Amino acid sequence: MNIELPDWCSTVKLNVKLDSDNDAMQFALDLVEKNIENKTGGPFAAVIVDSQTRLPISFGVNIVEHTNCSVFHAEIVSIIRASYATKTFDLGRTRPVTLYTTAEPCAMCMGAIPWAGIGCVVTGATDSDVREVGFDEGAKPADWLESYYARGIVVRTQVLRRKAIALLQRYVSEGGNRYNGNP
């Protein structure tokens, strides 16, 4: 399967060490900014990082509208691309990996993360931040964090949250489509 990313994505370098949660989240937020500037998708991005080397394995941006495919959320795109890059559906089988996502996962992405073998999730904006600007995040269990912890998945939330919120608001103020949500 070939996922058609926006042209600007060809300039993104994956050979950069992301030493901290803030560094990795800023990497993802920079992708959101480019997606907004180029009008190639929603205000969401994700990067999967090898937790030991701290090098990115893959990244994804929201390309729902760009591809006319409702499941191409940033997390899903980054998982698919990481699976192809590592040639495994279980990303955590050979090394621990961390998913950095600019917003808490929606209902769909929340289900895909454990199945992909991701052992740690770091988020920016909260579910309520995303809903507040008009996106529909689906029916998520209130105890989603506890269900991840029960599976051994570590979760850290609200990393660079203010920056993530500012990009959500920018996307909306510039007329971005809040598909499946409030117009």
Oligomeric state: single chain
In DSSP terms (H or I, runs of 4 or more residues), the helix count works out at: 7
Q: What's the overall geometry?
A: globular
> How many runs of DSSP E, i.e. beta strands?
5
Q: Give me the strand/helix succession.
A: HEEHHEHEHHEH
Name the beta content range.
15-25%
Q: What is the radius of gyration? A: 15 Å
Terminal-residue CA separation: 32 Å
Instruction: Please give the largest β-sheet.
Output: 5 strands, mixed
Structural class, judged by helices and strands? alpha/beta
* Mean pLDDT across every amino acid position: 95
Strand line-up of the largest beta sheet? 2-1-3-4-5
Helical fraction equals 25-40%
Q: List low-pLDDT spans.
A: none
In short:
The protein is built from 7 helices and 5 strands, in the order H-E-E-H-H-E-H-E-H-H-E-H. It is α/β, with parallel strands linked by helices and 183 residues long. The radius of gyration is 15 Å and the shape is globular.
Describe the protein:
The protein is of the alpha/beta class. It has helices at 21-37, 64-67, 74-86, 107-115, 127-132, 144-150, 161-173, and strands at residues 45-50, 56-61, 97-103, 120-125, 154-156. It has a five-stranded mixed sheet, sandwiched between helices. Helix 4 (107-115) links the parallel strand 3 (97-103) and strand 4. The chain starts with 20 loop residues before the first helix and ends in a 10-residue tail after the last helix. The mean pLDDT is 95.
